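Thread title: Can someone regenerate the structure for this chain?

I was given the following input by a collaborator and told the matching structure tokens would be attached. They weren't. Posting the sequence so someone can regenerate them.
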Amino acid sequence: MYRFVPFAALAAALFTVPAAAQQHPGDDAPRVLRQLQNPRNAEALGTLAEALARTLMNIKVGPLADAMRSVDPDSELANVPEDATLGDLAHVDARDAARLGDDAHAVGNMVAGVSRQLEVMLPTLTAMARDMSAQWERDWDQARRQSRNRR
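Best answer:
Regenerated them for you:
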């Protein structure tokens, strides 16, 4: 059920690093990458994911079932007990929240590894981005000049 979480979180982190670096240009990009490498952040991510999963799975759905029964007495919710939780409806195992926390912790560790690699590559990537920007600017200027000469 939660197998997609590590991949989704890693993808989100990979998109977040460039966005964070853009918000903090210059010397802040290495700081952002180092922050992602902090083991306390990986631990906090795991703890947060587990707590959120436990909280969501303990939400009582009885009042919602009552409302749905009043709209459609023949709905599948007719047999939902008054004290049922979201976890009961989803048939969630009591260990699922802990597994999700473990997976999120692993994702935090994967993000730390990726950010270490990005930090090493950052000077080269920055130089490449500047070179590409300069090349595009030259190409754009040349295209504008050619366009003006054709008139």
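The mean pLDDT is 81.
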